[in-house]
Amino acid sequence: MRPIACTAGLLGLWAGPAIAEFAVCNQSFDVVNVAIGQYERDEFVTRGWWTVGPNQCANVIKEKLQARYVYVFAQDVFGNAILNGSTNMCVGPKRFEIQGEKDCAVRGFLEVPYIEVDTQRTERWTLFLTPQGAGG
């Protein structure tokens, strides 16, 4: 498994009828599984999993971004985290939607480190996962 870095950018110049509002694009050489978290109304909600192959993107939030910060956790197919996050929130072993980010283990979930992505209050954003050291 190669180390992964991430870069971010606006998704405003991409033409097409189905523009994602938050997309994760995998520019690494490995398949990754992605979970996201964001503040909705009065609590955090985490959702997953999206499987993203090499040189593919997943549209993880399809509506216009409301929250400034989106949290992302990515792991390889062996379950190893590939981003160095520092915000702990929950994930489930299969497709999940979890309300709240506290007491993960007590509720039967794993607590993992998400990275914080500052979307700078834009309506659209793309996060690029790139092989570390490849200009990302």
In words, what does this structure look like?
With about 140 residues, this protein is an all-beta fold. The protein has one domain. The chain is built from no helices and ten strands. A six-stranded antiparallel sheet has the order 7-9-6-3-4-8, with no helix packed on it. A four-stranded mixed sheet has the order 1-10-2-5, with no helix packed on it. β3 and β4 form a beta hairpin. The protein is globular and about 35 Å long.
Secondary-structure topology with pairs:
Layout: E1 4-9, E2 22-26, E3 32-40, E4 43-52, E5 56-61, E6 69-76, E7 87-91, E8 96-99, E9 110-118, E10 125-131
Parallel strand pairs: 2-10
Antiparallel strand pairs: 1-10, 2-5, 3-4, 3-6, 4-8, 6-9, 7-9
Main traits of this protein?
136 residues; mainly beta; six-stranded antiparallel beta sheet; globular
Q: Tell me the number of strands.
A: 10
Mean of residue pLDDT values? 84
Percent of sequence in beta strands: over 45%
Low-confidence stretches: 8-18
Give the biggest beta sheet: 6 strands, antiparallel
Distance between the termini: 17 Å
- Cα shape: globular
Q: How are the strands ordered across the major sheet?
A: 7-9-6-3-4-8
Q: What is the H/E order? A: EEEEEEEEEE
